[in-house]
Design a protein that fits this description.
Keywords: Aminopeptidase, Hydrolase, Metal-binding, Metalloprotease, Protease, Zinc. Belongs to the peptidase M1 family. It is an enzyme of class 3 (hydrolase). By secondary structure, the protein is of the alpha+beta class. Among the domains are: about 190 residues, Sandwich (Immunoglobulin-like), CATH 2.60.40.1730; about 130 residues, Neutral Protease Domain 2 (Neutral Protease, domain 2), CATH 1.10.390.10; about 100 residues, Immunoglobulin-like, CATH 2.60.40; about 130 residues, Alpha Horseshoe (Zincin-like fold). The chain contains 27 helices and 31 strands. The strands form 8 sheets. It has an 8-stranded mixed sheet, with no helix packed on it. It has a 5-stranded mixed sheet with strand order 17-18-19-21-20, covered by helices on one side. The chain is globular, with a radius of gyration of 28 Å. The two termini are about 15 Å apart. It binds (3S)-3-amino-4-(1H-indol-3-yl)butanoic acid (HT7) and zinc ion (ZN). (3S)-3-amino-4-(1H-indol-3-yl)butanoic acid (HT7) binds next to β20 and α2.
Amino acid sequence: GQTVKLDAYSETDFVFESVFLTIRLFDGSAEIESEIRLRRREGSGADAPLVLDGDELTLTFLKLDGDRLPDADYDAEPGGLTIRSLPAAEAFTLTIGTRIVPEENTKLMGLYRSNGIWCTQCEAEGFRRITYFYDRPDVLIPYKVRIEAPKVAAPILLSNGNPGETGDLDSGRHFAVWDDPFNKPSYLFAMVAGDLERVGDTFRTASGHDVTLAIFTDKGRSHQAGYAMDALKRSMAWDERRFGREYDLDVFNIVAISDFNMGAMENKGLNVFNHKYVLLDPDTATDQDYAGVETVIAHEYFHNWTGNRITCRDWFQLCLKEGLTVFRDQEFSSDERERTVQRIGSVRRLKSMQFPEDQGPLQHPVRPSEYREISNFYTATIYDKGAELVRMIATLLGPEDFRAGMDLYFERHDGDAATIEAFVKVFEDVAGIDLSSFALWYHQAGTPTLTVTEAYDEAEDRYTLTLAQSLKQGAAGTGTKPMLMPVKIGLVGPNGEDRPLNPSQGGEIREDVIQLSEAEETFVFDKVGGRPYLSVLRDFSAPVTLDHDQSESDRLALARLDPNPFNRWRILNDLIGERLAAAAGGTSEPAQNPLGDELVTAILETAGDDRLDPAFRAQVLNVPADTEIARLIGENVDPLRVYETATRARKTIATAGTQVFERLVAAAPADAAFSPDAASAGKRALANAALGFATLSDGHPDRAFARFEKASNMTDRQAALAILVFRFPEHETTHRALDAFYARYEDDALVLDKWFALQAAAPGEDTLDRVQKLSTHPRFTLKNPNRARSLIGSFAGMNPTAFHRRDGRGYAWFCERLIELDAINPQISARMATAFRAWRTLESERRAKAEDALRDLAKLPHLSRDLRDIVDRTLA
Ligand code: HT7
Ligand code: ZN
């Protein structure tokens, strides 16, 4: 495939002014008529042809100002349309007819059918699978859409913008017209037609405009859309409060679809969602699912301003909308829930998903400069590191200047297809500062290391702090210059008080933020009042790896004293990670207690401290994932040894904390009434973590099974089932629970996904045999992305012990599925293949087997461009 390069950007030769689409839906095919008003761009050659994008298209006719074009004037291929001899100066109308087969569209890009419903997914390059077009984000025009469809199969007809005329046609058909007054790029086009159920509501904007809200679901599921509607209204109100952004159309529609490649899509006025992020009730969804729905609803809604009103000039600017919108949804969740716990969740995600990407073969900068397949760039780096960069700007500027910068961004760029440079510039302008060394964060790939050195001179009562930053060259081969970063610190006294931060040398510290810009900077604090404990990188103020040789006693003191609650968690979590990595990375028999007694005591003290938020305590008990420990080890990783070491540590915590865990389990009745709020969810999280430890120490499944049976909600039911499946995979009790779960939920696709996913994630090499068997289950299919992810994705991405089996059978089986999947849906196969990204860090036997598997894949002639891109980059 061809590589697309940032510096090859140029404007289109023709300027599109508007488009009128007529979409005629039939069983078995769809006819599209696209009437585009356009003219040649001034300055582009008078004889330059019009070159339009297409993908697997069939042209049915082509007209210029109403007359058919002679065959000699154009070339129509499935992959593009080139038209010659077009008018030199005046505007004209092209009408393009195409025919497609939505029923055969298994890639789920463009127009496809899901469960009988016609729906579209156009980002990034799906519109070209519907009609020939300038399918690029810098072509912004108003769209008018007329949908015609059979009335029985599709009583509901939706598109972007505001609703217009509707009416009946012959042969049991009808039509609806939609008008979107806002200029938009093709990737934000959407259309849905089907027999859908509707939940309605209204929202009055701050300026008094009434908006009609609706969520459309499959028949019989609308009662599960109430929480999503509530989250939508809270998102709308929050964006007015926090960013002064109001909604701008008369209607806002959401449709829940069961076959969807990603989480959701922010099409203007018509968001299309994976139904996983809409449909919920306590009996079928966990607290994590509730939080996920809230986040995704908010995220897509926030895109209306950051993405739609201001979009991207080209796909290299993807983080302009994604990083910024993730930052906004994270802030929303922090305001709606509990800030520290939310921040812990975001940092965990960053470290478990983005850090490995940034430190491995798939490394790329937040603003890449080239790609082969853009769908492979919807990554943790673009989204999550992109959000961290916005967060750093907010931290560096402070809340007032940050808000002023955002206001200026909206004012200056409303209606634009903008760039990262334009985004950074608004903050330079409002704050009157030069952010060029900060802007390097967008271009330099990799996780910088922040090295911290401290010295205390007792005689002078002088404390010296040196911060140094460094960045290693990685796979992306980008620069390694020092970058401006905010380092939030505190000097903590023995009673947990923050001391003043007035350095006599090193420059001013505003509030608690050091603006580190050099490779190394030293700060001297005089008369500090005794040796302080250094609390550094508070709230994870920069996405770096911390290298801080701090004594265990200082760290354990901070774990108790630090006024910054995030750092109390981080310090314990880092200590656990380091200890486990040291024990699992060595070759000698790991110590009986790899954590050490004092750390275990500190963990238990926090977990048992009723003055602290239960959700926070649950996070302390959630020891770093095996993949995080593997990343910390860095080379010659044996995933089985990592798992065994982590299990040994969990057992030590369980044994030492029997009383704490017994008390916590007893305090949470299994049949308590359910409320999805964050405080109630936190209590369940703590109780279920405690149940896991209690089961580890008593060593039999009865208690988990009893809880499974009595549970009044899916959070507790799934947590108990996970304990059974993970700890006692072959026990008769576990089979009983799995069968009961299946019998209860076999017709609920989203819950059945959980049943597949749990079994695929059960640690141990034997899981492969069970997963193989499950892949022949009548309810298993590779065609539905959620189902494919639940079994295959969960196996390869969440189960290092089974996927990385020493004999290589895990890889062999996975690759066979990958090839099957690739013929159906390349975006999903490519994403799943990233499970190989850490292959070079494995011990030699597994490394060789993984490399063989990847090289065998690379040799196949018919891989999709998506999968080939990932395989080639992983091997490079
Ligand atoms: N902006 C949306 C991206 C998306 C997407 C990309 C590629 C293929 C399928 C897709 N579905 C949605 C999602 C978001 O970030 O809001
Ligand atoms: Zn997004």
